[in-house]
Specification:
The protein is mostly beta strands. It has strands at 7-16, 23-32, 41-42, 46-53, 60-63, 69-70, 75-83, 90-98, 101-111, 120-128, 135-145, 150-160. It contains no helices and 12 strands. The two termini are 33 Å apart.
């Protein structure tokens, strides 16, 4: 963990395989919202969640897709965290766009707040990519707090190969 002030950050990571010497890198822009202003906010979208079994005693570990590339006719899970909500009457609407046109819509879902962490409410959902063509897409998640009639949205690009 590293405490960061609100703002826009670019995160860069590079790695080299010791055996093959192959290099790889990834970059992502990340927005840290200013939660002190009390506005309904969402974290960045985390795409491609999956559980990986560990050989060690640690059990399972969650990982996500760094390159946001998914196979055609597959599905992926995504996640965001909701901040500064009234903790009830939350709904989430999910849309997928290609070339500015909506190609997939998930009906609005009620979000249940977990009692263990009411300051940071997780929202997860799965997207079925069956029938979508290869190319670049935009995932958009909009959360509405019906008690205050406020909304917050977050977008992320992903690719179908």
């Amino acid at each position: 963990r590293s405490p960061l002030k609100p703002g826009i950050y670019q995160v860069r990571v590079a790695a080299r395989d010791e055996r093959s010497a192959i290099l790889g890198s990834a970059m992502e822009w990340m927005v840290i919202p200013d939660l002190s202003k009390g506005r309904l906010s969402l974290s960045s979208l985390i795409l491609g969640l999956g559980t990986v079994k560990q050989r060690s005693a640690d059990g399972e570990q969650i990982q996500w897709s760094v390159d946001k590339r998914f196979a055609a006719n597959s599905q992926f899970e995504f996640m965001t965290f909701i901040y500064n909500s009234t903790l009830n009457n939350l709904t989430a609407q999910v849309h997928v766009y290609k070339d500015g046109k909506s190609v997939l819509s998930i009906p609005a879902k009620n979000i249940e707040a977990a009692p263990e962490d009411l300051l940071r409410i997780p929202f997860k959902a799965k997207i079925n990519l069956a029938g979508l063509q290869t190319g670049r897409y935009i995932l958009e998640v909009t959360v509405q707090d019906r008690a205050t009639n406020k909304t917050a949205s977050q977008q992320s690009a992903f690719y179908i190969q």
